[in-house]
Write a structure and sequence with these properties.
The structure holds two protein chains of two kinds. Chain A is mainly α. In chain A, 67% of the residues lie in helices and 0% in strands. Chain A has one domain (44-267). The chains are: A mainly alpha, B alpha/beta. The A-B interface holds A 1, 3-8, 19, 22-23, 25-27, 29-30, 33-34, 37-38, 105-106, 108-113, 265-266, 268-270 and B 1, 9, 29-31, 49, 52-59, 64-68, 70-71, 74, 76-83, 86, 90-91, 93-96, 142, 170-171.
Chain lengths: 270, 215
Amino acid sequence: MSSMRYIPHEVGFFHAIRARCRVIGALILREIHTRFGRENLGYIWLFVEPAMLGLGVALWRSLAGGDSSMPGGMNKFSFFIVGYIVFYLFRTLVNRSPHGIEANFQLFYHSKVTIEAVMLARSLLDTAAVMVCAAVFCVLIGLFETEWPSDPLQMAAGILMMLGLAHGLSLLILSTTAMGSQLVDRLVHPFTYLMLPFSGMFYMVWWMPGAYQEVLLWIPLVHVMEFMREGQFGLGVPYNYDIGYILTWIFCVNFLGLCALKAAKPHLEV
Amino acid sequence: MLELSGVRKSFKRNGITREVLKGIDATFWPGDAVGILGRNGSGKSTLIRIMAGVEHPTSGSVRRRMSISWPMGYDGAVHSALSGADNARFIARLYDRRIDWVESFVQEYSEIGEQFRQPVKTYSAGMRARLIFALSMAVDFDCYLIDEVIAAGDARFAERCRQSLLSRRGRSALILVSHQVETVRALCTHAAILSDGRLKFHEDLDQAFAEYKLL
């Protein structure tokens, strides 16, 4: 019995943080493996899809509007492509959230792996992919259209805010689905489609009449998009956003999401 | 230490709620080798899945102060689209073990050979069970959870599993659930009986077996 190990050593706060980070790191690497696989090129679509939509809208705008430029002289391609990529992050995280558990049930056989960690790892990976994608298009647009982003760091911060909103919302949706609400599961896809015109992806708030502006500015996505675009196009046109409003939303959805997940855990079926 | 306090679990099927576990209190320490006996449908698997953290109790709490294995006897714990090697590397990262060491240990111990680099879904049931067991040996858990007999394909490997678990007795905790008295006798020093959603511990194996036969 000399080799008996009595483990209950007290675990410090920083030790616990490090352990959490290690778990999330391992989950991210695994997610990369399962998605990329050894032989599929799944992430090519992350580039192709926004490029197709962005190009389509940009083409339609130039055909319909002739040579007339956008209000404020913004570049059509960078406006729609980068706008769509940022919305794509929101759509992906939210659409996928109802099935966050079935898709990863093997992971929950490891007591170290929590649902929170799995969801966070997946959200972080998608955010990283979207950042890379946005950077690639910014460089391409810079090379071909000589339109370089005015503040890439502000754009990155905007993408992180989108992550915050979408992640919190995905936790809420996951929890309500787990509590047995099939309705939420069915409504998620229509919801993200309907959010498209309300995401600020197709327009700037100042293009709109005053009354519409007020309504649009209730939507946190619009604020995030405006903030991101300020980093993209720089000063010269009016931007309408309120950082405090965005951060309040992010805090609220994440807080409610985590509470809902705690309440839903006893009902989860793996 | 693994501590369950006031663990209750109920399931809802077609609008009818059935309480499977009705308040389980238990503490397990490294070195314990406990067999939990229960008839079919008594909630054995639910109990071990709650211990492992696969499922969460409806009320009550589970505290884990040692590393706990996944419940052995399931195909969970490995991802079938990934190769055995990729699974081994993931588990090494997750449990903070040396990656190259875990990979070579698992390949050797599981005797999977060339297919170690192929996706797990191409494995036979026996190979899969060997992989999962080898992974758990590589992590070297403080507590092993085992659901039913380790039917790892062939008898030779099952015997090796038994030897490996026995050699760990005294060092790691071993919690086994089964409906068979023989399995518990082969691996455990203590027994408990799960019936009607409650767990009753016995110091003496024979006394437990006698009571279990009366159920």
